[in-house]
Every structure is written in C-alpha cells, then in structure tokens.
TrEMBL record:
Keywords: Lyase, Magnesium, Metal-binding. Its cofactor is Mg(2+). One of its GO terms (biological process) is oxaloacetate metabolic process. GO terms for molecular function: lyase activity; magnesium ion binding. This is Citrate lyase beta subunit. It comes from Psychrobacillus insolitus. Mg(2+) binds at residue 207.
C-alpha cells in the first residue's frame, strides 16, 4: 500500500524528488494515522463494495470507513449488517484463494452505533474482524468513551487482533461553549489512558452545525462558520500538542461535483476548488487527512499533504543540525530563517509526512501534481 498507487511510475518520477513509500497497517501508529489521508465513507448498504475495493476501481484510495451509523436508517440496519457480512466474506474468500493481495487492500474501518452494537457485530463477524484496522466510535463523550475502549480491548483479546479506536467528537457537550472546556478536559484524560489504542481523533462538523440549524453552502469552507471554527480550534488546542501522540482528522466536506472537472481553476468557487481550499486550511491548522464522501474527493485531499522540496530541505537541515547546533540556520533557498529549537517539532512532522506522501521536485507544486492526476 502507498499513496497515489494508481498513478503510473513514469508520472511519479516526473513529479517526485522522493516518491511515497510503501506502508502497511503494521506501520508505527502515528505515521499510520497520517497515512489514512482521505478516508472514504462507504454506506453499509452499498452493494458490491468488496469489488470496488479489490478491483482497483478506487486506485488511489488508502483507507475506507464502512458505516453502520448515520448513513443507514434504523429500519435498514439489519440489511446493512447482512450486506457487510456478505461483502467481507467475499474479500476473505478472495484472499484465501489468492485472488487478491490483502496488502493492497485499503485500510478498512467500521463505524458502529454503540458499545452494544459493536459487541453484536463482533460476535457475528468473528475472525473476519481481522480485516479491519480499526473501529470508529460515533458521538464519543466523556460518559461513553471508556466503555468503548474497554470493549475494544476485550474484542482484541478475544480474537487475538489489534484494532485501533477512532473516536468522533461531534456532540453538544463539545460545541456548546458552557460545557466545552470541561468536556474536552475529561476526554483528554480518558484518551491519555488509552492513547496506544487511538489511531486518529475525528471531528463531526456536520453534527456540530446541526445543533445550530446551520449548513455551509457548497462554495464556502467550514472555516467560514465561526461557531464551528471556534470549536475546531479548541479541539486542536487540546489534542494536537506535540507532547502527545494524537492525530486529528479534518471534518467531512459534504458536497461533490456530479461531473468532476478534469482541471481545477484557481480563483473560482467551484465545489472542488472549495474543497481544495478547505483541505489547505485543514493542513495549515494541524489536521491530518479528511473524511470523504465521494471518490472525486480522494486525490484533492491527499495531494494536499505532499511535501514541497523546499520544505523537505528545510526540515532535513533542522533535523540534521539538531545535535550540533541549536541556533539559527539560513534556509537552502535563502528566503527564510530556520531556528532549530522552535522549528524542530515541525521538521519531525514534515519528514514523517514526506515519507508517506512523497516530496515533489523543485518548482513543482501540490496543485500542479493534482492537476495531473485528476486526468488519470
């Protein structure tokens, strides 16, 4: 598995100074969380999703979340569960018959409804649970989080597997100003207890918006909603500190082009250009990756995290001189100062990102690369 695996080798060599490296779900936890990138939601009722995941229909997809929560109505839940069981069994059969290579399958995650629902699904799926990399916990609060984690630990032990937790922060306790600080503080203490289990923390901006009767239009980013931005900032401030080991994923962008463009036009407010702008703001503010609802969003999100050669050289210079010099260094491009001590954590993160998403050649931008792969 690697980022942009659907792009042919010739194109990769044209654009990259250092291409993305291979990874598997055995990758160190923090890097694996970064590698999730654009995580595509797959409704539990979607027919034949196993073939879409295994037949290279989604060549650049590296992570998928199969959803049994908000994407499935209550009266269709049993049908969705049966569909997932059948589709996962097909994947397992194809793997056992050596029709597919499990290492080329996107990282799979399951979004359940509750602890009781998780226990039920695990009992039904049994050893097929090993196909998943993690479990998404919806509407996670300080009241239910510990039960989720303990249940996950028990299921990991029962089936001799290692599933990660992906809690979603999306409830009124977090968005309402009067309860936010206490709730985030309580969640932080709980999450620290189970830090080794948490792959990414996800945020539900759609649920947050719903509590105020808000919905951003297709040509505006989530950052234009001040009520939501204020909350996202508090979440990042709580969980994105360098002393901790958490990765926070950006919120869903709920619009997509019915007929995706072959080129993005800078300066326009098209749906895809708005997503591109939002993804830039996600990365700039400290989010890693993003929940996606349509295949056309995958490349736009993942291209955001490719590292420029200039930033890669700055980061390498800082790390390379950390042991000998902790003062100021002139950047290789002679356009900025690099201070070893305050920029060290940024450099570590940038080099990890470069390993996963690759480093572009000089004078090539992430937007240039995106324009190319949108035509493939």
């Amino acid at each position: 598995m690697k980022q942009f695996r659907g792009v042919n080798e010739e194109k990769i060599l044209d654009f990259f100074y250092s291409p993305p490296t291979e990874f598997s779900r055995e990758l160190e936890k923090k890097k694996l969380g970064m590698a999730m990138g654009a995580a595509l939601y797959i409704p539990g009722l979607m027919p034949n999703f196993s073939s879409k995941l295994t037949n290279n229909n989604l060549k650049n997809l590296t992570s998928a979340i199969i959803c049994l929560e908000d994407s499935v109505s209550d009266f269709e839940l049993i049908d969705a569960e049966n569909n997932i069981i059948n589709e996962l069994q097909l994947i397992e059969q194809n793997y056992e018959n050596k029709i597919i290579d499990i290492n080329n399958l996107p990282l799979l995650f399951l979004r359940i409804r509750s602890v009781q629902h998780f226990e039920k699904i695990a009992t039904i799926l049994g050893n097929t649970m090993r196909l998943f990399t993690g479990i998404v916990f919806p509407k996670c609060t300080s009241s239910n989080a510990k039960s989720f984690f303990l249940c996950l630990q028990e299921i990991n032990h029962q089936y001799s597997i290692h599933l990660y937790a992906l809690p979603i922060l999306e409830t009124k306790e977090i968005i309402y100003a009067e309860s936010r600080a206490e709730e985030l503080s309580n969640l932080y203490r709980l999450f620290k207890q189970f830090e080794d289990l948490i792959l990414t923390i996800r945020v539900g901006a759609t649920d947050f918006s719903s509590l105020f009767g808000l919905r951003r239009p297709a040509n505006r980013t989530i950052y234009d909603l001040n009520l939501i931005t204020n909350c996202l900032t508090a979440i990042l401030n709580t969980f994105n500190r360098q002393v901790d080991n958490f990765i926070i994923s950006g919120p869903v962008f709920e619009y997509f082009e019915p007929h995706p463009q072959t080129k993005l036009q800078l300066g326009t407010n098209s749906i895809e250009m708005t997503l591109w702008n939002e993804a830039q703001l996600d990365a700039f503010n400290g989010f890693n990756g993003k929940t996606c609802i349509h295949p056309s969003q995958i490349d736009i999100v993942n291209a955001t995290y490719v590292v420029s050669k200039e930033l890669y050289e700055d980061a390498s210079l800082i790390i390379g001189n950390h042991a000998e010099s902790n003062g100021v260094l002139r950047s290789p491009t002679r356009n900025k100062m690099n201070e070893v001590k305050p920029h060290y954590n940024w450099a570590l993160k940038t080099l990890a990102q470069a390993e996963i998403y690759g480093v572009l050649k000089e004078n090539v931008t992430t937007f240039d690369f995106l324009q190319c792969i949108k035509n493939i």
